[in-house]
Write a structure and sequence with these properties.
About 20% of the residues lie in helices and about 20% in strands. The chain is of the alpha+beta class and about 550 residues long. Among the domains are: about 80 residues, Thrombin, subunit H (Beta Barrel); about 300 residues, Class I glutamine amidotransferase (GATase) domain (Rossmann fold), CATH 3.40.50.880. The strands form 6 sheets. The protein has an 8-stranded mixed sheet, sandwiched between helices. Strands 1-2-6-5-4-7 form a 6-stranded antiparallel β-barrel. The chain has a 4-stranded antiparallel sheet with strand order 12-13-24-23. A hairpin with a 4-residue loop joins strand 9 and strand 10. Helix 4 crosses helix 11 and helix 8 packs across helix 11. The two termini are about 35 Å apart. Belongs to the peptidase C26 family. Belongs to the GAR1 family. It catalyses: (6S)-5,6,7,8-tetrahydrofolyl-(gamma-L-Glu)(n) + (n-1) H2O = (6S)-5,6,7,8-tetrahydrofolate + (n-1) L-glutamate. Pfam families: Gar1, Peptidase_C26.
């Protein structure tokens, strides 16, 4: 964890007590750090200033950052200034009412966040996302205090200040860079010293700072991804919404599979590639049934950690099936997120369109377009780098998506930028990328909710990974796989921030997708290589098991 050790807000431990700010060194230079000066670290008491008692409200406060998301009982603030706060620095409302104290600091050097331990009379639900919060300017230190010194320049003392080497996991410029840090407040996270701004002891071997983690700790070693938000749930379970079998399903199933489905007692289905997409990101899957009362969705959403709306051809005008279930889920997710419960939604193709329609109060804003069987590169909007979805994406992934035709499009409807803005959808959602169809009609390709963790893509990242129809334009190149896996890992990483649980492992086992066989439908002309089919009694049985 960051900024956690034996010390407090500067009293004899300063920025991390005896351990400095990060493992064996880092942000505090061995024993010196910002504590007593540690033979050269910065004077007796570091930045804490004498005895640790309440001196009342400060003379003035300045804007510090905004409330970004909750982490258990803490607030996480996105900092909007460059200076760095003391550990335990009080945080205020604009009227100088104290709401809590800085507990952790994490992120990149010039793009970091803090967690705030709330005062006893404060609750997370009392705050609104993007709410501005304030700090006493006297509780800030300049960022350059923590930057590596130029070659040949010494620090403030042999064992204090900012170390040149940065120790293991340091904030320096030698071994700190390769063995746990050097490039940011978190970087490699908690394996060996926490990579800077981390305490001594806690969740991960030599870093971490104890207890819960609100800081960054997740990355993929294979692709080098670094996501901003720390996983708090290492066993996520994601719901994938089923959809009805209708006459239009023949386009997806192929004639033989469609005939088999209507002759049998199958009511709904899920393409296996969506299940594999989630599993490939590191989560398990539970099918979410259609045509159930709202109470069912309320109960299952207390157990799963997010829901994916898959592509398909369900009709939005229906007050049943996929469309009705989607409305229930969207409304419940809004309620959960408004209470501070982080509940992500993801929509692919039809699911993307569903999210947009639901975000437009149920009014259909789609246009017909010729987007069938097209492999495209994305045209990113100017603000995409500020989005949750892409701001931590590796540059290599951004280059692939923007330069190479890897996005697999299979849709007859789309949302034009004009419809997106004229329906005021841009007030709650942001458009991150666009494309043009075969008739040069521009359409929106990627959206992200401004307030809640909802994400939609018009294309199919799962097809690059798991669909092998020979006559299609789906790319299976290394670059296509790499970019698609980024989306899977990003979404699952978001679901890790939700801490819902099934009551027992046995209960979870009864609901998991493993209870149904995947049918090999690709050999019979289906556009989907494998599919799961569900009978009406499957959902009824589960409905009776959940309370």
């Amino acid at each position: 964890m960051s900024f956690r050790g034996r010390g407090g807000g500067g009293n004899r431990g300063g920025f991390g007590g005896r351990g400095g700010g990060g493992g064996r060194g880092s942000f505090g230079g061995g024993r010196g750090g910002f504590s007593r000066g540690g033979r050269g670290g910065g004077g007796r008491g570091g930045g804490g200033g004498g005895r640790n008692f309440d001196q009342g409200p400060p003379e003035r406060v300045i804007p510090f950052g905004y409330y970004d998301y909750p982490c258990q009982d803490d607030l996480v603030l996105k900092v909007e200034i460059e200076d760095v706060p003391y550990f335990n620095a009080p945080i205020f409302l604009e009227n100088k009412s104290q709401i809590g104290k800085v507990d952790e600091i994490f992120g990149n050097l010039r793009d970091y966040s803090v967690s705030v331990k709330l005062s006893e009379n404060m609750k997370v639900s009392s705050f609104t996302p993007k709410q501005k919060l304030y700090i006493d300017p006297g509780k800030l230190l300049p960022l350059n205090r923590f930057l590596p010194k130029p070659a040949g320049q010494k620090g403030s003392g042999p064992r204090g200040g900012v170390q040149k080497r940065g120790g293991r996991g340091g904030f320096g410029n030698s071994r700190g860079g390769s063995r746990g840090g050097g490039s940011g407040f978190g970087n490699r996270g908690g394996n060996r010293g926490g990579g800077g701004f981390r305490g001594r002891g806690g969740n991960n071997s030599r870093g971490g700072g104890g207890g819960k983690r609100c800081s960054t700790g997740a990355e993929s070693r294979q692709w080098g991804y670094r996501f901003e938000h720390a996983p708090v749930n290492e066993h996520p379970i994601v719901g994938v919404l089923a959809q009805e079998i209708s006459l239009d399903s023949a386009d997806i199933f192929g004639d033989q599979i469609f005939l088999d489905s209507i002759r049998g007692d199958w009511q709904s289905y899920i393409g296996a590639s969506y299940v594999k997409f989630v599993e490939g990101g590191g989560a398990r899957v539970v099918p979410i049934w259609i045509d159930k009362p709202k109470k069912y969705y309320e109960k299952i959403m207390k157990r799963v950690n997010g829901i994916l709306f898959p592509g398909g051809n369900a009709d939005f005008v229906n007050n049943w099936g996929y469309a009705q279930a989607g409305r229930f889920i969207y409304d419940i997710a809004n309620e959960m997120n408004s209470r501070g419960e982080y509940f992500p939604l993801w929509g692919t193709c039809l699911g993307f369109e569903l999210l947009a329609v639901l975000g437009n109060n149920g009014t259909d804003l789609r246009s017909e377009c010729a987007g069938q069987s097209m492999a495209l590169n994305l045209n990113f909007t100017s603000n995409f780098t500020k989005s949750r979805m892409f701001r931590d994406a590796p540059q290599s992934v951004i280059d692939i998506l923007s330069e190479k035709p890897v996005a697999a499009n299979f849709h007859h409807y789309c949302i034009t930028p004009e419809n997106f803005t004229s329906n005021n959808l841009d007030e709650s959602w942001q458009m991150l990328a666009t494309n043009k169809d075969q008739n040069n009609l521009e359409f929106v390709s990627v959206i992200e909710h401004r307030k809640y963790p909802y994400y939609g893509v018009q294309f199919h990242p799962e097809k690059n990974l798991y669909e092998w129809h020979k006559s299609s334009t789906i790319s299976h190149s290394y670059d296509a796989i790499k970019s698609s896996q980024y989306f899977a890992q990003f979404f699952v990483e978001e679901t890790r921030r939700n801490t819902n649980l099934f009551r027992t492992e046995g209960e979870a086992n009864r609901f998991l997708i493993y209870n149904w066989p995947a049918q090999f439908t690709g050999r019979n002309g289906s556009a989907l290589m494998q599919m799961y089919f569900f009978a009406l009694h499957d959902g009824e049985t589960h409905l009776n098991k959940i309370d």
